[in-house]
Amino acid sequence: MLSLRKEDKLLKIASNSLVDLPSPSSLSYFWNFGSLLGVFLMVQILSGLFLAFHFSGDVNLSFDSIIHVMRDVNYGWMLRIVHANGASMFFLLMYIHVGRGLYYGSYRFNKTWLSGVTILLLSMATAFLGYVLPWGQMSFWAATVITNLLSAIPYVGVMMVEWIWGGFAVGNPTLTRFFAFHFILPFIILFMVILHLFFLHETGSNNPVGVSSDCDSVSFHPYYSVKDIYGFSVFFIFFMMICMMSPYIFMDVENFISSDPLVTPVHIQPEWYFLFAYTILRSIPSKIGGVIALVMSVMILYTLPFYLDHKFRSTYFYHLMKYIFWIFVVNWLLLTWIGACVVEMPYMFMGMVFSFIYFMMFFVFWLI
What region holds the Cytochrome b/b6 C-terminal region profile domain (predicted)? Predict the structure, then answer.
């Protein structure tokens, strides 16, 4: 069996990636989140594929098709709840994964980091497109508000908005296009994940200490395959508890009402995983300034490999940076909380302060 695994080309590739892959011996459970993200990506693709069988991409039918899935399709309620809550779990894992990479200096692996940030951006786009598809009140108005932001781009902004809408207002062509892009983007993300893993195996994994582990590595199986399986089990128990006990905890009540262009919700807000960027957007008085700050809140991650040049990759040797990092995390959580608050004082002022701190933190990382 061992000789077959070494001689067969296909088995050899799988073996080198999942069995014999040299891995640092000091990896903690924070390195479980990458494999968990891969599992949840497949959960989202498969559940989304089965939901697409019953979804109708028409403004007159989409909301009713969701109700049909929930009430009439066998286990359709489970598919919809797993898919909706799975998106929240995917972003929770991704933010932890990015935070771990920032804390332990994984941005020093340029190709791996840049491909990972690209996956984050594509995931955000996919999640926004999927949020519009149920065509509830919040879906309709979120699509209207977010796509209108492009109109701030000089000269071509209005033309871009009309192209995305497929007309002069959010309507049936908009929903059709969003459904098409929401269906195809996950497969592009899957391709980027394969590329991400290729770069990871090319450079090797980072580790908590941040120094080379060539002289102290172990095979991926069974040391980390067992650890990953344990992580899967624990997190899936947590995920299924949410799906069974609080299935609508991440959903907005306004989205259980069919869209009405004549009635504006009292408070328009995106899903929780976009709230930090939404706070930054609304904290800038200028529309074009807010759009630039919104884009830069994520795009700034692309710049980290080029200006953070610490001699050691991990914060293990930079005690001050540990405290700065946790200040950054708390600031990010506060931005998320403020994004769910009404647009009035003192939340507007707090949003401005925490938005400024958010960007300043990246400058502080460079100084330390």
Answer: 210-368
Consecutive H or E run containing 237: helix 220-245
The token duo for 182 is 């929401």
pLDDT on residue 43: 93
Respond yes or no: is residue 271 known to be catalytic.
yes
Burial bucket for residue 211 (CB in 10 Å: 0-12, 13-18, 19+)? middle
Catalytic (active site) residue 252: no
Q: Is 202 in the active site?
A: no
- CATH number, domain 28-203+218-258+285-303, options 2.30.30.30, 2.60.200.40, 3.30.470.20, 1.20.810.10: 1.20.810.10
User: Is 228 a catalytic site residue?
Assistant: yes
At residue 164, φ and ψ (nearest 5 deg) are -65, -45
State the pLDDT at residue 92.
93
Residue among 201, 221, 287, 310 flagged as catalytic? 201
Say what the pLDDT of residue 11 is. 57
Cβ contact 334:283 at 8 Å: no
Closest alpha carbon to 146 in 268, 58, 253: 268
Question: Alpha helices, DSSP H only, in 248-345?
Answer: 275-283, 287-299, 304-307, 319-339
- Active-site residue, from 111, 227, 287, 310: 227
| 267 annotated to a ligand binding site | no
What's the DSSP call for residue 30?
G
Q: Where are the domains of the chain?
A: 28-203+218-258+285-303, 310-367
Packing angle between helix 157-165 and helix 137-148, nearest 10 degrees? 150
Find tokens 């769910």 and name the residue: 340
Please give the backbone phi and psi of residue 334, each rounded to the nearest 5 degrees, phi first: -65, -40
Q: Specify the pLDDT at position 241.
A: 92
Integer Cα distance of 162 and 165 in angstroms: 5
**In whole angstroms, what is the distance from residue 169 CA to residue 148 CA?**
10
- Report the Cα 135 to chain-centroid distance in Å: 22
What is the pLDDT at residue 86?
Answer: 93
Contact by Cβ (8 Å): 100, 33: yes
Residue 108: the pLDDT is 82
22 membership: H or E segment, kind and range? strand 22-24
Residues of the chain with pLDDT under 50: none
